[in-house]
Specification:
Two copies of one chain form a homodimer. The first copy, chain A, is of the alpha/beta class and about 400 residues long. Chain A folds into two domains: about 150 residues, Alpha-Beta Complex (Aspartate Aminotransferase, domain 1), CATH 3.90.1150; about 220 residues, Type I PLP-dependent aspartate aminotransferase-like (Major domain) (Aspartate Aminotransferase, domain 2, 3-Layer(aba) Sandwich). Chain A has 15 helices and 14 strands. In chain A, the strands form three sheets. Chain A has an eight-stranded mixed β-sheet. In chain A, strands 10-11-14-13 form a four-stranded antiparallel β-sheet. Chain A has a two-stranded parallel sheet with strand order 1-12. In chain A, a hairpin with a 7-residue loop joins strand 10 and strand 11. In chain A, helix 4 crosses helix 12 and helix 5 crosses helix 12. The longest helix of chain A is centred in the last third of the chain and has 27 residues.
Chain lengths: ~400, ~400
Amino acid sequence: MTRFASSVSALRSSEIRDLMKLAASPDIISFSGGMPGNELFPLDMMDKIYDSLTDKDKQIAMQYGPTSGLPMLLESLSDYLEKKGLPVKKNRLMVTTGSLQAINILAKAFIDPGDNVLVESPSFIGALSAFRSYEANIISVPLNSDGIDIEQLKVMLESTQPKPKFLYFLPNFHNPAGIVYSQEVKQQMIDLLRDKDIPLIEDDVYSDLYFYKGDVAKMKNIKTIDPEGIDVCFTGSFSKILGPGLRLGWMLVPEHIYQKCELIKQSIDACSPSLSQVIADKFLRNGYIQEYTENVRLEYKKRGLAMIDALEKHLPEYVSFEKPRGGFYIWLHLPKGTDSTLILKKAIEKGVVFVTGKTFDPNGVKNDCMRVSFCNTDVDVINKGIPIVAEAIREVCG
Amino acid sequence: MTRFASSVSALRSSEIRDLMKLAASPDIISFSGGMPGNELFPLDMMDKIYDSLTDKDKQIAMQYGPTSGLPMLLESLSDYLEKKGLPVKKNRLMVTTGSLQAINILAKAFIDPGDNVLVESPSFIGALSAFRSYEANIISVPLNSDGIDIEQLKVMLESTQPKPKFLYFLPNFHNPAGIVYSQEVKQQMIDLLRDKDIPLIEDDVYSDLYFYKGDVAKMKNIKTIDPEGIDVCFTGSFSKILGPGLRLGWMLVPEHIYQKCELIKQSIDACSPSLSQVIADKFLRNGYIQEYTENVRLEYKKRGLAMIDALEKHLPEYVSFEKPRGGFYIWLHLPKGTDSTLILKKAIEKGVVFVTGKTFDPNGVKNDCMRVSFCNTDVDVINKGIPIVAEAIREVCG
């Protein structure tokens, strides 16, 4: 099922068929995806990397590797994460087949059918699907513009029995909400969870894609704030900073959790793709990653600011949103009770697609919000498409 | 946990540590792995393929693809499988992150905790791990030199309640047993399972690696014998015919099973590595696969025959084995009650490693057999290592 299909599941199946046909048209403007623009991939760097590979590198690329990842990538990735302040020596690093696999493995490690798990509302659909697939009982806590609602989290922690197996959250440039956690909210989370033996899953795949260098200091990960404290399973990915087609992510987790995860990974796919790992290692080791992320940051900033401008210019005043300071997404709050599926239908007829709010609702209900992405369309397309989105909103909401 | 570690789990942990240190030495002769020799990978073809990629190909390689696989690979792989007689149009093909992932997805699709599943004894450790990870109750049926023991299968089918969710088997150049199913046994399996609504999982990753072209005709897959009959989930892999480092396999399954598997795959890793898929597609489309498999077939035949010769020359007469006619493995039957872990210990001390029998026993007990692989060592190394294996056997068995 595509993300699009799940976003229109309220419609009749014949309607869905027609809409999907329209939405798949090459002329449609898509603000729906969470993938980098094709034109932004570092093809020159890929060529240079491939040309630099020795026969031995290529043999490693073609062969099985250790379940936890190729030693050379574990080394270069450790260095990369250590520079961000993550305690790579006190935790274990594992390379995974995308960060979604990291989340899936953690879900399998923690969840028995019926177990309670805590997530934000809204939350990342991929993680929700993984938790559902292991039959978790998903309990959601609302998200504010500075992070999870601490009062609600407190209530949920007190009232949830048996206690939740983990709290899953996205600290930076949230998908779909676009927000960044404040230092205060992170500290309050740490204080609330201390001594409760409820690990955090911190899913941080967008933090390199900031618009403003000055924001970096406040995007500290939990383990850099509280290195000896609560258990944190930190997940990340090469998908947004190199290419999702490599299918490479990672988890950095405490030793006792790592042991279980390695066994699970071994039975899922034995090891992550070695070819991708060899390339990612060179990408890190040659310093290409700094050069590349600097470039794409500028481009995503241009697109993000263009989308903010276009939304401010065209949206009716009853639609609000938090201006993103990085990442891929803008989350629009529609008038209470609006059915964003109706807006999507209108928008698709006019040639634009986005993702409805309830796609990201852990309960699959709350639909008076919607996600538009700016990662995969250039400024001209944004300027053409956003007025259409605004028009569709007006047609439904008046 | 490595395959090696699991094979010596009967030993004390300090002994295991010492043995693992020895076994990891670069000078050790390894007959334990199931990976192609590094020197056999088609590096020239990889270079030619990479050089032929257009910018568009490279963008596809870097981007997310559909969960079921890149359309171009689904097309070229369908053609490839159709030429083998598989009913690709009446079933659905999905590209997976290695064939182990295909088996894992099928396990998740079929198994609820406590469900009965049927396997051969011995069987592939990766599949056993996947079935165990979903808490299946694994019921084993002995394997003969021409396939599963039909009388025992009949008994198990009659006596197992609730009925098993599937029967998992390896038709060609069995791992670890090295045997090929006869036409008769396959037909008897089909007859036994007809109208029982118990699907087969047919794991066929070695059939391209035959020593004798004349054997191809008898290695027909179930769906080519009985296209309209029982449900078959057919799994295969690029690991042995291109490179395991790509992590690419496939499943060809009936539509109603496919739907569930696609949802599961989406929550496991979203899609298989696109970079690997682009390369595998060219490998198929340019006809490199025929050229390459012809070459490696000759090399594996040379190694396999050398190992058969060395075993016949050096083994005590109380050790028997079925001579392989393809694949990677030879399965040695030791005197009843022998503990092959003791032999492994002796062998490692002398500089050779292999895999103990109980590793492949669904019950993890029967240890009077052992697997030696000939895929990853050249003829000279085989001639040096097999006398050492024979010596270790004599020291334990007399």
